[in-house]
Write a structure and sequence with these properties.
alpha/beta; Nucleotidyltransferase, domain 5; Hexokinase, domain 1; 2 domains; 5-stranded mixed β-sheet; 13 strands; globular
Length: 350
């Protein structure tokens, strides 16, 4: 991510933040047209600079207003015209926001008034990740397999992590200006569909634990653990009955990559293959010729393993509509701060 520590514009400031349960990252954003795009103001033809990045531990502050006010004071931004966009990992469709992993509750309107902000937008963390995608450089993503992106066409993103986040981007024209609009939802909770006997057996095992099997039940951190438990039972008739015998998602991926555990390798392989099918489903739903992107904290740990799996083959394996997925590229996002980049894209586009 490019940073620019030049003097601030004292008249207008774009304030951005990525708010998590443990840390909050706050920064400022500016944009300039890329050299080969003249005076274009479309966001994906701009070079975005993120500067003055500060990371704070949430537990050291009593409220979001307190930490934001601290940043504004330290950076001498009082009196500036501040346009703000904050990415946060919780619903933002109502004025009152209650954070899931922090005792912070606040009104968006009251926060804007208290901090004297010119404008304020809150966006979901996955909306922020989606908004970052058109701005990613080749150094901030890794391509998996074939396909070529088509400018202006829909983009999809999914991210195995604590859960399975999903979002889509579509290009819209507003007053003659091209903008990206994010369509979010709960795509990770659609019904899981097995495509071979082993996956059917894994599904049957999970159904014995849960009332319903969604893709998130496999494509997440705890999904990896459930696949591993299922394969132990299927292969060896072994049931895990104590926490001590249960491997974590990180242990499973580590053992699979170093080749020390055959069942862990089977687990990670099945995970990659199912992810390919799910990503291909997203491409069909949105006709995602702009590409399908994999985000989240899990997959970047084993990109080479993903490449060697049937991820791309499963992505493309869509019968008579395979031409859609064959044309669509797939990428893994490697940018460490997509939330800040997406918040910057949102506020600058606005």
């Amino acid at each position: 991510m490019k940073t620019n520590l030049s003097n601030k514009n004292k008249h207008a400031i774009n304030l951005i933040a990525d708010i998590g349960g443990t840390n909050i990252r706050i920064a400022q954003a500016t944009a300039n047209p890329k050299a080969d795009h003249g005076d274009s103001t479309d966001i994906d033809t701009m070079s975005i600079n993120i500067s003055d990045i500060e990371t704070y531990q949430c537990k050291k502050f009593t409220s979001l207003a307190e930490v934001l006010a601290h940043y504004i004071e330290v950076k001498a931004l009082a009196g500036c015209k501040i346009n703000a966009c904050f990415a946060i990992a919780c619903p933002v469709d109502k004025d009152l926001i209650s954070m899931t992993n922090l005792p912070w509750q606040f009104s968006q309107k009251e926060l804007q008034q208290a901090l004297k902000l010119n404008s304020l937008s809150f966006i979901n963390d996955y909306t922020a990740i989606a908004m970052a995608i058109p701005l990613l450089t080749e150094q901030q993503k890794i391509k998996i397999g074939g396909g070529e992106s088509v400018a202006g066409k829909p983009i999809s993103v999914c991210g195995p992590g604590t859960g399975l986040g999903v979002a889509n981007l579509v290009s819209v024209n507003i007053s003659g200006k091209s903008q990206w609009h994010c369509i979010s939802g709960e795509g990770g909770h659609i019904d899981f569909a097995a495509v071979n006997e082993t996956e059917q057996q894994v599904m049957n095992f999970i159904q014995g634990l849960k009332k319903r099997v969604s893709y998130e039940q496999l494509l997440s951190g705890y999904g990896l653990e459930q696949i591993h438990q299922a394969l132990l039972f299927i292969n060896q008739g072994k049931e895990i009955t104590t926490v001590k015998d249960k491997l974590s998602a990180r242990d499973i991926t580590t053992n699979a990559i170093n080749g020390s555990c055959n069942v862990c390798q089977q687990t990670l392989t099945l995970f990659c293959n199912v992810l390919g099918s799910f990503a291909g489903n997203l491409a069909l739903i949105m006709n995602s010729q702009g590409g399908v992107y994999i985000a989240g904290g899990i997959v970047p740990r084993f990109i080479d393993y993903l490449k060697s799996s049937d991820f791309r083959a499963r992505f493309e394996s869509k019968g008579r509509l395979a031409y859609i997925t064959e044309q669509a590229p797939t990428y893994v996002i490697t940018e460490e701060q997509p939330g800040l980049l997406g918040a910057a894209a949102f506020v600058l586009q606005k």
